Amino acid sequence: MKKIIIVFSVLFSMGCASLPSHYVSLDHHTAESLDAVLKKIETERVVFIGEIHGTTSIHLLQLKIIKYLHQRGRQVAVALEAFPSGKQFIFNRWIERTLDEHDFEGIYKETWSVPYEYYREILMYAREENIPLIAINADNAMIGAVSKYGLHQVSEDFLREIKFTDCSTDAQYKEIIGKTYHAAEFPFLCDGQRLRDSVMAYNIAHAMRGNKATMVVLVGATHAMKIAVPRMLQSHDAVSYTVLMPETVSRIIRRPPDLDIADYIWD
Where is pLDDT greater, at 126 or 8? Predict the structure, then answer.
């Protein structure tokens, strides 16, 4: 009964939600319409949309951007934090229609804690339009082990391959992560978070090789910060990108967002 109530609440909130209406350029500190923002990101190679997981208006905006780019004739791929790269075959089977929704939803729920209903329209649109879905997250067990015991839990060869640099090399990143996350049982949490970001950057870069697709990246706001995955992506390939972020990220990072965080914010 509790599960039914939760699903109904999600569906009800989605039915009542609307797209964010106020956008601000952090470069020029000017208000922008959604149409203006869409036109400016149309030619970007990567579009990061930072999300507060399970916020209906954000998922509607993600879908709007994906549809806009696709309908404008852009080749589009969607990279999601929701699945680790080891489950890429699940996304492939979903797009190829060799996995029905019931089974796909079951795997989704075993993999990602945000209710399926929030992402359903995005996932269905990708399937209908044959838009590739890219699983970019790291393995949670690996991140947990590093966060608790340190970087010696992973091989130096792996760290070199993903071009990882630890938190001690980036004071700004370390400061923001320190303000954002607090867990005494995870003394190496910053390096764990940075490792996850590095893995996602590596997986995005790998997915972009050999094609000209615009990569729309759906990840949590702290991963989408320009000092996080976007900057790490540049170590693999110097691509053009834009970061869009909800203004409420300020509550997470405990300071107003600036150009080190995003290009556009909305409320």
Answer: 126
